[in-house]
Design goal:
This protein is of the alpha+beta class. It is 32% helix and 21% strand. Strands 1-2-3 form a three-stranded antiparallel beta sheet, covered by helices on one side. Strand 2 and strand 3 (28-31) form a beta hairpin.
């Protein structure tokens, strides 16, 4: 299993949680709850990993 760190914040204007994975272009999503955001980010990362590997720091 692979682990990635996501930066998460809540947008005060929309109330949505938004997150992105540093060093992984395109790995970003949003959700109404943290659980939804987590599922969305996992799906996005899975699709991106099929295409390429994240950048090394």
């Amino acid at each position: 299993m692979r682990y990635f760190t996501a930066i998460v914040e809540r947008r005060p204007d929309t109330g949505l949680y938004v997150g992105h994975v540093p060093g992984f272009p395109g790995a970003h999503s949003q959700g109404e709850t943290l659980d939804e955001l987590n599922r969305n980010l996992r799906e996005v990362i899975g699709m991106l990993l099929e295409e390429s590997e994240p950048e090394k720091p």
